Amino acid sequence: MITIIAKYNQDMKLKKLLDNANYLSITVDLWTDRRMRAFSGVTDYFLDFDCVLHALLLDFLQFKSPHTEENICNTTRKNLDNLKIKDKVQWIIADNASNMIKAFKFYLNVNDDTYDTQHDNSEKRLPCFAHCLQLVIQDRVEDVSYNLSSK
User: Fold this and answer.
1) What CATH code is carried by the domain that includes residue 120?
2) What is the pLDDT of residues 33-60, one digit of tens each?
3) pTM (two decimals)
4) How many structural domains comprise the chain?
C-alpha cells in the first residue's frame, strides 16, 4: 500500500519530469475485463534534453460511463488539464475505433504555433500500429482458417 508521503513524492517526480518536457506524445486506450468492468489508460512518451526516452503512466482508472466520444474526450481532457500538460501534447495515439477518432476531433487544438501552420485534426491523432497490425493478422488467420475448412 502506498503511503501518502510516497504518493506525494511520486507525484512530484512525475510533475518535474512533465514540467521539463516541451513536447509530449500520449496514448489512450479503453478496454473491458472479463468481469465487464471498463478501464481507461493514458501513457506519455517523450525525450528529455539528454535524449533519454521516458514512458510514463499518467492515468489508469475505471471508466464507469459508456465509451462515447464525448466521455473519452472529457476524461482525457480532465486528466491532461490536472497535470497541466494539455498544451504540450503534440500527438495522440489511439486505436481506430470510431469513438476514439471522434473523441480526439473534439479534443485536439488545430493551431500549431511551433511551425506557424494550420493542421488538420487527423494529423495530430495517429492510429496505434499494434492495433493495426493485430487487425491485419486476425484477417489473415481467418482467411487461412476458412480456406482450410472449405477443402
Assistant:
1) 3.30.420
2) 999 999 999 999 998 888 899 999 999 9
3) 0.72
4) 1
